[in-house]
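To: structure subgroup
Subject: Chain for Friday's discussion

All,

I'm putting the inputs and outputs inline so they're searchable in the archive.
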Amino acid sequence: MSQQLSFLEEPKKPTDRLFFAVLPDTATAQRVSLLTQQLRRDHNLRGKAVALTKLHVTLHFVGDFPDVSAQLINALSNKAAAVNVPPFTASFHYASSFAGRPNHQPLVLRGGDGLAGLVGLYKALLDAVLGGKVAPSVVQAFTPHMTLFYGSPLAHVDLEPIEWRVTEFVLLRSELRSGKPYEVLGQWALRS
């Protein structure tokens, strides 16, 4: 009887989020954390800062899953291994808020031409994961950024550039509704 009623069971709720990302090196992450504190003080911002251990630039959101299988991780890893992009310098030079819920708007680091390497890596990763050429409109819609803070909004603020040499990208697992650090499930060196 239980097999016959299995279609009545509620679907399992997602517990894990998978995404490809670029992580700042330790010195850069510490600098970004100090910058976040300074922006909060200087602009009287209220809200929650992103933990130092969770600072990243998302390249591709894979999805939310009730279980993360080894088969899924292997498939994603095989696709990511095909990415062939040389190392580059990422340079963020201003902060601004994205739209969001009132008093929960993401304050992010952004840049212009200094983020061309991130756009190239994003395109190469999507080509590998999706198995073909990515439409130019999809690439143009990608806005490389690093979220610093969720809270009150802030207009455009120019900054001394925050730069680091990007030499790899990673596949991260985030346990939803937990404060645990991200788990690195795979990492791939950039190469020419």
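Points worth raising on Friday:
The longest strand covers residues 88-97.
Residues 92 and 185 are 26 Å apart (CA to CA).

D.
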